[in-house]
Amino acid sequence: MNWELIWQGFLETCMMTVIASSISYLLGLPLGVLLVITRKDGIKPAPTFNAILGAIINFLRSIPFILLIAMLIPVTRAVMGTAIGTPASVFPLVISATPYIARVVEQSFLEVDGGVIEAAKAMGSSTWQIIRKVLIPESVPSLVTGAAMAVTTILAYTAMVSAVGGGGIGAYAITKGYQRGKKYYDFMYAASAVLVIMVQVIAITGTRLTRRLDHRIR
Amino acid sequence: MPEKDLLIEVKNLRKVYPVPGGEVVALDGIDLSIERGQIYGIIGMSGAGKSTLIRCMNRLDTPTEGQILINGQNILAMNEKQLMATRRKVSMIFQQFNLLMQKTVARNVRYPLEIAGVDKKKANERVMELLRIVQLEDKANAYPIQLSGGQRQRVAIARALASNPEVLLCDEATSALDPMTTQSILALLQKINKELGITVVLITHEMAVIRQICSRVAILDGGKIAEEGTVDDVFVHTRSAAGRRLFGIVPTGDDEEAIPEVPALRIVFEEGKETQPIIAGLVKEAGVEVNILSADIKRINGKSYGQMLIETPKDDEARKRTIHYLESQGLTVKEVDPL
Prior knowledge:
The structure holds two protein chains of two kinds. Chain A has helices at 3-37, 47-62, 65-80, 86-110, 114-122, 127-138, 140-158, 169-177, 185-213.
């Protein structure tokens, strides 16, 4: 068993997941805000804009990730300098995860009681003040749950970047395990087990953090 | 005519909601004048348009037509910035309190000060002062979930007072509270009105609320003002049908009374007799079984007004005992023939 490769894959997966998640979240959060405030019943209604943004997001979400990677190759090359390898694979991960996060964030914001937003309006808050001081703080627990879900999704997606020569433990499970035949299946199982443990740790951490941050639970 | 110090003037206000295949008229030509320093009550059944009316006063709802002047300024003509400034002088509290659930009591009360850019130290001092007014100093670091309904409404009131408003709009502020807590919130509103000179406008469907703290009242019915005046006057000389319904004054003409299908006794509660002991008394003292056919009883200030129909006992002795007992309790009893 090549433990060294498992360790290397683990580090690469961590790197890809952390970087892709951070960038996707930084992009997805404002998009989620836009999706919510421009709704017909939102605090800054803009139905046409909302419909266009929603359509773009749905379009990106409807393409299977493995296809998106292939379709994005020219763009990835233009943006990252190369289309192959671990760092380059962060780009399609971000393109795929950002619209997903925008929707998850939108859902969290929609859970905020409309009455509270109305009260903030009645107190003379600006749109920006409502976003920063009501919408986001009031949905923190739900945002954390959504973020944990997004990270586990990105983690699972990292396995697919083996298609463009990306590394990471999931990719190695395929290329250095499965594709090399039965003799190497134990490597595939070991690498997969590491992935499973990583997902579990993220999920449990997310749940605990949510519970700790939610002041609606005494 | 002496010059009145008008704080809020509502002129010919109309609000129409489009619905599939037509429109719903929520407000139909409302005119109101609210003087500074008053506690002004607006009462109506649900669907009368009272919530829409109060929500137009700070433009949470936008009317279709008409004017709303606050200190002589038409808020419907204001731009976003002017409106934000006006809203800081026109505070509002709600039926469901609408507190920030992820923030402590102190942070909730500090919110209006934060958005107004008040210096942090000054803001914190003001928060403690406000919490003293609503008697919740000891809950400063609690979260809303840890508080009772009454305490939550007190926090909402403290928050509403933070910006030194001229008027406090109360949108069914006591409707989610039990009678005891309602009393304490009403007392607090009265105190705020007297000691801080803040004008209070409240909407409610509860007569007792109007009776207890309001100086003037408008009765809203079907998007129109059915009558308006001082509370004493409107109570004593109720002119509108909507007013009579709300006050629990039951029409007395036989033509308007329901006719039962079996021989029945009509018991009229006129002087605020308690219903409960009378039914219990019939069972215990007169030894008859009571079958209530219908009851239309309103409770005003803890007293019952209205009428009740019970089935006449078939046994003649029991019938006599029943009537005798009810009359001995000072109630008016009429025998009603069936259909």
